[in-house]
Amino acid sequence: MCPPKDDLLAAMQDSELSLQEGDCLAISSKVVSVWEGQCVKVDPSNPAQRDELAKAQAAQWLPREEVPERHALWTRTQGNLISGAGIDASNAHEHLIVWPQDPHASAERVRAWCSEHYNVKQLAVIVTDSHSIPLRRGAVGFALGWAGFDPLVDHRGATDLFGRAFISEHTNLADSMAATAVLAMGETNESTPIAVLRDVPYLGGQLSKTPSHTPPYTVTPEEDIFAPFWRGVAWRRGSGGS
């Protein structure tokens, strides 16, 4: 697919993709953004263009001066802690690729089309990207949007091997699947924007549940267990929401 816009569903139809009941279809947010026209032409005369665009997309942003070597403009965008509001210039053909405006709606649109085209009813779809996590080198995949399943597996009330009850334990199914998918899809020039996960533990039990796009899946900075780290830096207010 080529920016600034291309037909994702037509590309999928022309591919060798096959789906079965209970599968999870993982799709890169980049090709979803290209499909939806979320691309901005690079302005060579404005070296600050990417940061300006990130600040406009973000609910909060942290100045580069606060980051070692000025490597990142940290933002809180669509409920995610992400560098540069997720805006990407790689494999973008002289464009900046912005996240989909509503990744959950995008995932549902893909899921509905795939359900009809491949004749599958029990199907999970995740829109993926990758990010850095504190105190670790390298990128790991996460789910930006999802459809067709509940992203959390609730273990509250279960007991461990010694009978101790779990009070707050959940499995983050959406991000776990995304990390696996992104590892298979790659980060550079692999040209593999889609992966199919099959026989995923826990997924079958979540496919019949209503997807959650709000708390308890996401948390606000105030209630986050990492709240001390949020409070300790000079966040600026951006133009975006969430």
Walk me through the structure:
It is globular, with a radius of gyration of 19 Å. It has 242 residues and is an alpha+beta fold. The mean pLDDT is 95. The chain is built from seven helices and twelve strands. The protein has a domain at 20-36 and 100-211: 2-Layer Sandwich (60s Ribosomal Protein L30, Chain: A), CATH 3.30.1330.100. The protein has a four-stranded mixed sheet with strand order 8-7-1-11. Strands 5-4-3-12 form a four-stranded antiparallel sheet, with helices on one face.
> SSE order, as H and E?
HEHEHEEEEHEEEEHEHHE
Q: Which spans of ≥5 residues are poorly predicted at pLDDT below 50?
A: none
CATH class of the domain at 20-36 and 100-211: Alpha Beta
| Arithmetic mean of pLDDT | 95
Q: Order of strands in the sheet with the most strands?
A: 8-7-1-11
Number of strands: 12
Strand content: 15-25%
CATH-scheme architecture of the domain at 20-36 and 100-211:
2-Layer Sandwich
